[in-house]
Amino acid sequence: MKLAFATGATALLLSTVGSFAADLPVRVDPYVSAPMAAPLWTGFYVGLNAGAALNLKNGATYSPVDTGLGGFSPATETAFSDPGSSKNAFTGGAQLGYNMQFGSVVAGVEADINFVDRKGGNVSGALFDPAGTYTTTFGLVSYDATGRRKSDWFGTVRGRLGFAFDRALVYATGGLAYGRVAGGGQLTTFDAVPAVVSTYNAAGSDRDQFGWALGGGIEYAFAQNWSVKAEYLHVHFKDSTYTLTDTTGVFQFAVRQSNKMDLVRAGLNYRF
Description:
By secondary structure, the protein is mostly beta strands. It has a single domain (42-271), classed as Beta Barrel (Porin). The chain has 1 helix and 12 strands. An 8-stranded antiparallel β-barrel has the order 1-4-5-8-9-10-11-12.
């Protein structure tokens, strides 16, 4: 009898304690988080980017033009070039795109629009004048050129193809580039004294240009919908052409100016 009573009391006590314990809140260690699911790259995304536009030393070639007014004779004059003197510039903008993932392969398309603070600079050097148009020792004439090489904005529409490694995506990218490119300036020549021989001016060109972009990068998903990227792009626009005419209207130079830049930038994307 006593054994049965003790057994029943013990069972009742254990049942009561179990019920009470079940009602207590469960303590979760705040320093241990649930593992993030593997990122799924398929879908739309939007983001921002910022970085630097490098190697903006876009030079120009100056070719004498025969105006028929007693000026240069292209058969005897020598064209000369300047390497340009633009410094590196800031660039920033926004992008949107869409990816499709097939196993580890990720293919997509991306479009961006960007601001770039690209400006030209002064160059100086020497040109050879074999026709003797200028009376100088050995026909050597120095020059100063002030270039108006400027880009306010540009954009790209590119394909992307890469491989996903867990949260990382390594990709190559390439496609169309477009933007506003300005070219023009002033060329002043001096003789050996030195004294100003002539000053050439050009309104230049300010127009939309098209070209191509090619590069690659790496993107890392640090949260379920967020990722960061580091990217390199080479952007190459069509050359700009314009004419420099001196103050008399007799002498002219045809100018061809290159327009290209290398971009190193970082970006932040939100993936839907």
